[in-house]
Write a structure and sequence with these properties.
Blueprint lengths: L2 H22 L6 H4 L3 H7 L12 H13 L4 H24 L5 H22 L2 H12 L1 H11 L2 H26 L3 H24 L5 H32 L3 H23 L7 H16 L7 H29 L2 H18 L4 H30 L18
Helix pairs in contact: 1-4, 1-5, 3-8, 5-6, 5-8, 6-7, 6-9, 6-14, 6-15, 7-9, 7-10, 8-9, 9-10, 9-11, 9-14, 10-11, 10-12, 10-13, 11-12, 11-13, 11-14, 12-13, 14-15
Length: about 400
């Protein structure tokens, strides 16, 4: 077996293992995962592959494309693209830590690859695919923070912009998940927002940076936290609309935001004045989400709020995908463009509340069909005759 055949066999075997490992794993977020440190999150994503300056780097990338070619459905493509994106992000971290300016280009490649993965996950319509994407993507933020801290100053703005687009793509997949399983989306929200709350604390307490830099990082991470906080409210609204797991979702969101408030209040007492703006903003968002009760709203209010949130999010997501396209290689750009068209065609003129209502109707139809099937089975067992009903015995009136 020559070198190329060995590499082809290895990438097929490894790719199959990755798909099985990703999508057979449990998605329920444990307390230990929620409390993961930044170092644990950095170690948890796919490691850097062959270094860009290696003579085998082009070969490695070629076999990535081969593996993607043999991913025959959207869930499999989402899994492979997610791993490729994680490798690019890990490679960017390694280069940034060594002062290599090529880290910026790898971050932009991560950006377009993750955008493509998010589209495949969303269009898969598979709850498990979206849940695993949501869980794994939550861990990317810690590596992003590390890259931003290490890249040259002239590259920081592009890397920060890529991090903003990552947040939009992450939330888009979680939103799609919420329309199928609000409880699982609430678990993913708790995982992601917990990490951003801890990131605010790390940024505010980072003594290696001067006060203005610490304040800026704390403020930017607070803005990201605000986006996740708003999504926490949106999950509650969707659960209220679906009439599915309302109490569980509200409990998960309230428990998560209570913990966020505790983290933020604790760090607020220890940071310099310059960092308070970002922390106070995050605290206000967390307190608002904890106090929010979708059950107190009328159906009309729920519909209006879902519409408003969805419209705002779609504008931000479209901008993120367009920006990702501009940095992407031709094949990735074409994949993103096709995905954008399919997402638009799938939604079309259907408003988000109407799409959720169609899910409610489908569930109702499924229940009716199940009842009718059981009734048909009963008739078949009784020879087409309904079970006899014993008439009520007349009771003589008391004299």
């Amino acid at each position: 077996m020559n070198y190329v055949q060995k590499q082809f066999f290895n990438v097929m075997l490894w790719g199959a293992f990755v798909c099985v490992a990703l999508f057979a794993s449990a998605v329920v977020v444990s307390a230990q995962e929620a409390d993961a440190t930044a170092e644990e999150d950095i170690a948890a994503i796919a490691p850097a592959g062959i270094a860009p300056d290696s003579p085998f780097y082009a070969t490695d990338r070629f076999f990535e494309r081969v593996g993607l070619f043999f991913a025959f459905n959207r869930s499999a493509r989402a899994a492979r693209l997610l791993v490729h994106a994680e490798e690019r992000l890990s490679e960017a971290r390694v280069l940034a830590e060594s002062g290599d300016a090529r880290a910026e280009a790898l971050v932009l490649e991560y950006d377009s690859t993750l955008a493509s993965a998010s589209i495949e996950a969303e269009l898969s319509g598979n709850e498990g695919t979206e849940a695993v994407f949501s869980e794994r993507a939550a861990r990317h933020a810690a590596t992003f923070d590390r890259v931003i801290a290490q890249v040259p100053e002239q590259a920081k703005d592009n890397v920060r912009a890529a991090r903003d687009r990552y947040v939009e793509n992450h939330i888009a997949v979680m939103r799609s998940l919420a329309e199928k399983a609000p409880e699982r989306a609430a678990e993913a929200f708790a995982m992601a927002s917990e990490r951003r709350a801890n990131a605010i604390a790390r940024a505010a307490e980072d003594e290696s940076e001067d006060a203005p830099a610490r304040a800026r990082e704390a403020r930017e991470r607070a803005e990201e936290f605000g986006k996740y906080a708003a999504f926490g409210e949106e999950i509650s609204l969707i659960a209220r609309k679906l009439r599915t797991g309302e109490a569980t979702v509200e409990q998960l969101v309230e428990r998560a935001t209570t913990q966020h408030i505790q983290v933020l209040e604790d760090v607020r007492a220890r940071v310099p004045q310059e960092a308070l703006v970002g922390i106070d903003s995050a605290l206000q968002n967390a307190q608002r989400v904890r106090a929010f009760r979708a059950g107190a709203l009328s159906d009309v209010d729920v519909d209006a709020r879902i519409e408003a949130r969805k419209t705002e999010a779609e504008v931000r997501r479209e901008d993120a995908l367009q920006r990702a396209e501009s940095f992407a290689p031709v094949d990735v750009r074409e994949r993103i463009q096709r995905g954008r068209v399919e997402i638009e065609e799938r939604g079309g003129e259907v408003r988000p509340t109407e799409r959720i209502e169609s899910r409610i109707e489908t569930r109702t139809e499924n229940r009716i069909n199940a009842v009718q099937e059981r009734a048909a089975e009963t008739r078949a067992r009784t020879g087409g005759v309904s079970p006899a009903v014993t008439p009520a015995r007349e009771v003589a009136p008391v004299q």
